[in-house]
Amino acid sequence: MFNIFKKEISDVLITTTTGELFIPTRVYYKIHNLHLFKKALRKLKCIQFWEEDSNCFTIAYYKEAKKLNLTTHYQDVPKELYPISLANCCIKTNSVLHMDSRSLTRSIELINFLVKHIPSNLIEIISFAHMNKLLSVKDQSECEGLLSQDYNALFDDVICDEDHGLYDKIKSLDSSDDLTAEQINNLKSKALEAAATFIEEEERNNYPDAEKFSIKYDRANHRELICMLTLKAIVKEKVAYQHYKGYKDYTSLDAIEEMVNQTASNKPPDLSPNL
Q: Would the CA dihedral through 254, 260, 266, 267 be positive or negative?
């Protein structure tokens, strides 16, 4: 179920069978109509409900999910590795869905997948949680324990980082009648500089093992959400990999600066974690 990349003889980096860095991730949904939601799920051949619990199901790399844009495409995965579970999902208190997967890329692709196959009035994404560090093991046998990893233990105590409205405040300056264009640009620049300084200090001094953030979902802005999550995933993977290599002072701003510099030099941005 996992691949391993050697760093040293006693230290191997874990990736998924579809080639992504192994970073446990949980997506939280609010369920608006449980009966119709289950009915819609049962129409999908890639969904398999658990025999021991009808409120839990698995999304497999199969049928409708074969076209997901994962690092290793369906036809390129060795047949002996199938069936591949992309996510384990459980319905809590009939109104909340937890979708647990083993990579940021899988989670984002599955968010897109559910939007395409489940009517938007049935479920609504409300938050997103993920680990911030990569896992290494001494040998292949240690990977087996990760298959039964308790995602509740990973994420239940993580405090949700609510949106403090920084972006909205900056954006609202555009509509101010009392400020000139130059004043607005100066305020934006100072606000973004202060935010960057805050992020860098926070990450250098107290980079969390896991984080969770709320999402105010709007179907009309779904594309923007996916773009934001994709960028966040790229940055978080870069930071996690640099920390894994021992560069603990590497921050999200470093990752973003690298991407900007690559774009400015007319080179295709390096979106990989440099494995």
A: positive
